[in-house]
Fold each of these.
Amino acid sequence: MRLLSGLGLCLAVAAIMQLSATGAEKETPKKLLRHVVMFGFKETSSEAEVQVVVDAFRNLPNEIPEISGFEFGTNNSPEGLNDGLTHCFLVTFESEADREAYLPHPAHKAFVEVLKPHLEKVVVIDYWADK
């Protein structure tokens, strides 16, 4: 009986070791703080002026080390549900402290000044995402 019990334990340990060797065990996902910013620009703003805003936003990761990831795109949804929002930016932080450093950062404030004359509408939402 002890032999069978010991054999069962050995088989269980071997199975766990096999999972570890193949990477099949689950890792605890790392959470990332996502800062989603969507803009709609004034009709009076030219394409060149909008591009200046986009370029200024896209440069922020070079100036603010707390930004751990950055993506940008323009709306191309065929659904017509964008409500005047045309540009989307996804800024990623690893912590709330990083976001807290970003918001009042001089480079972010300078970007907001570039944006203001052209901004018609903005939506911002932040959320924690599993990686």
Amino acid sequence: MLALGVIGAFLPVMPTTIFLILAVACFSRSSPRLEKWLLDSPTYGPSLRAWREQGAVSRKGKAYACAGMAAGYLLFFWSAHPSLPLAIGVGVFFLASAAYVVSRPAPKSDDARKETSAR
């Protein structure tokens, strides 16, 4: 999962975060050192911690995910010339995926979390 996440960081058609979320989940059972390394990463750590602690996705993450899905669909449609049923099926899959991502809450700030936990 970590290798796929690293590849996704360099290839625009491959997702990164979902593979890193899965890598953290696997490392939590197999290698606490690598789990900590991913969670402490300045680049991916905040989004991984937000997902783990709150099931949250940042607005920027939602925008990038939706834009990536739209670009992926357009690339698929342009290059594969799918039949109408296949184009509709893939479109419905992307729309459902985008709806799931958009429906996730935005991460709460550290101050808001501390205030909520103090109550």
Amino acid sequence: MHIPVWTKPALYGAAAGAIALAIVGFNWGGWVTGGSAQEMASTQSASDVATALTPYCVQQSTSAANRVTVLADLKEASTYSRRGIIEKSGWATPLGAEDPNRDLANACALALADA
């Protein structure tokens, strides 16, 4: 079997081109690995759930029996402790859940602070 002389340089060129394409694609082309895509999807999903349930939390703040004390505590609290106040009040616990949703508590605290 006779292999042409140009085969070796052609294979080196193809390998170098593939490596350059991968570097450009992952650094500047927006390519991501499967793990990164899963992480981005999970983060976006949690954000979307919090956005969808924020009106529920705000509604809870207007109809709860302890709303006056919780809202007063919320206005006096620092930005960092507001989430904890919302979680303790139960307003960030969706129906059927046992634990409060952290992202929902953050979103609700921001919505109540703006109101």
